[in-house]
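Sample entry (812 residues):
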Amino acid sequence: MSAQQLPDGFSQEVVYTDFSSPAGILHADTNVSFVWELGGRVWLIKDDVKFPTPVIDIAEEVAHWGDLGMIGAVLHPDFLTNGYIYLFYAVDRHHLLKFGTPAYNPDASEQFTSSMGRITRYTLNTVDFQFAIPNSRYVLLGEAAGDGNPICTPSHGVGTLAFGEDGSLLASTGDGSTWVGGANGYGYNGSGPVPEFGYDSLALADGILSSDQLLGSYRAQYLDGLNGKVLRMDPETGNGLPNNPFYDASNPDGARSKVWSMGLRNPYRFTVKPGTGQGTMNDGFPGVLLITDVGDWVWEEINVAEVPGQNFGWPLFQGPSIHNFYWMNTTLNSNAPNPLHGSSNCNKPFFNYQETVIQSNANHDYFLPNSCNPAIEIPSDVITFIHSRPLVSYANEANTGNPYAVTSTYNEAGDATYCIIGDPECGVEGGSFIGLSASGSAILMGDRIPVEYQGWQLHLDFTGWLRAIKLNELSEPEKIEYWIGNLVNPININFNTFNGCAYVTSVYPAEIRRICFGANLNPIVSVTPELVYGASPIEVQFSTVGTYDPEGDPLSCHWDFGDGNISIDANPTHTFVAATSQTQNYTVTLSVADTSGGQTQVLVPVSLNNTPPAASIISIEDGELYGINLPTGFNLVAEVSDDQSAPGALEYLWEIRLNHNTHFHIMSTESGNNAYTSIAPTGCSENETYWYEIRLRVTDPGGLTAYDSKMIYPDCDNTLGNVPLPDGKNYLLLPNPVSDWLEVRSIIPFGDSFDFEIYDYQGRRMTHESLPVYNSRQYVKLNVSLLNSGMYILKMKIADEWYSEPFIKADY
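Predicted structure, serialized as tokens:
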């Protein structure tokens, strides 16, 4: 696809140009919208005509210089009734400190100095929306110096305002720190002289910044500060909400009471994924957030916030890996007191941020040692975090070391690494890419979007390109398409649910363009029943009730029943007859066409003289425990019956799902009715909830299925005790025989590495490797899938001693 070619049926056009530094557009209904400008003005557009006078003008209050300004705005979900519009902007220092005093000058502005973020709400009249009701201004955040998010730089200030699907108000904030390095030129962690374009000292003197927040970029990690966060608030009061992850009932207006997500550098834009939120503010969930975080000349990030309290790692991590400068320059976390302080060998009153935020791994087993005594873990009453790695990271144009886009993955040792997009092993279709500054995302939804693109994420970069990302149900990327490359300085994108178009706002040239699908849309088909089975003959009443054409065109139906008969009725009745008493299968094909050439097909399986199998997992009890120190092996055996099919004709699929808070990961799959799986020791974290689900699907030759599942939970109380090992041995090999992965367990820690050799029975050495060992693990997994079937000897080093153990490689 060329740089300026949209998919078939999509087109783009510039629709508005008469603005000064527009920041975005809000859509109230099919013919009423509002454009807000970085400088502090809000304009009404009705029937595509801009009104001559702004409905709100707070230009003298807004700090519009550098990358600052009125970045965020949102309409209340009930805007047409209550007229509420919310604005998020950096406050001009002169206005902040002098307004209401004799020294105030409405024409004065102080630039390149300290500032602060503020959220205000205005009420527009709901008759014609042409003006704000006098004295309706209400400040939710940042009423006075020290109440808003500090901004000590010409950038990294305020971000997006949005409403969660539970009615909560969400806001993103930058770390408020300069992008220019300190004395070493790499970054600023609050120590030493303030670097260029850093106004921390002045912000402290102004009362904008408190002394506990003299942390530079580490403000993104500081729980009692508003910087580098996504905040979740009550839209009536600005207070934090009781079900926020760090809510303090004694101080609902405090910073930590408002924190929803943290560890962000400059989360300039985010969007709520439609259909993922639920409930009300106090007991619900706002929805999954897709957050674009502007990077530090290394990686640009697309993050997904799917549970409360996620930490996206800045400044310790950026993209898929650590940020070397911040990782090497330790900074104390004043929210994390060290209980060993004062002992003979511990002079640290607090843990470092490097100790309380660690990288994720595939097995989700974590040990956070106390640096004063590495054998002791950081206590559970200290808030710690596992870095939430980006959905997608792509290199900044200045990142010549890693010039590509990657997804987060893990290596064989279970440690975080990355996979280049476009590499078949990554599982993400598309080519790699680079950019300059992540500028926002929007989700394509609704009947005006072709089915094949519904739910896709449009992602914008300041360099001028737009890409479309296909997400699965877990908000993971499956495919990335290059759509446009001719945009100029775009800073926002949003989706208008009323007309099904995406709107891209560019700051220079000042323009807003829309991208719409204008070609014919295929019919949306609903058919019942979706599956037919039973004793022959079977009379079936089919129905297409609920089928419609998005443009309202008349529809025609064509049924091919797979047995030589057809019908053009919308809701036909058909009798299926098997030739014998044996099972016979048909596939019904329904084709629905509109008058403009659009067509949609749906398949309905039919299995005569057949009933579904019955399946029950018998080797695992619901609620069983698994170990959290070493892997736990489970046999996968089910009791299965099928009246028509022999056991050998059935297909068995076991799926091992690791449930993590509100989502899950598919860890492995097995086949057959006598399989084996090994459960990694995951769970028992104060901030994370883990458990496994063992799912079984049994399918007969006619496509009929049976399901069963069992939940197993971590043994947090050590009910299982130590894992028994063979007499006289301190290790165990599982499974043995093995087909793919051989697990080595030990009652003794391996140390820093696991050294091993594999020999065949003729004494020939097949492999010699050394695997790194992390977190004092007492197990490793060895990939033996490439070995031929037969007997082998594993020679391994455990605690400086060499041991030999036979194992069988079998191809099942």
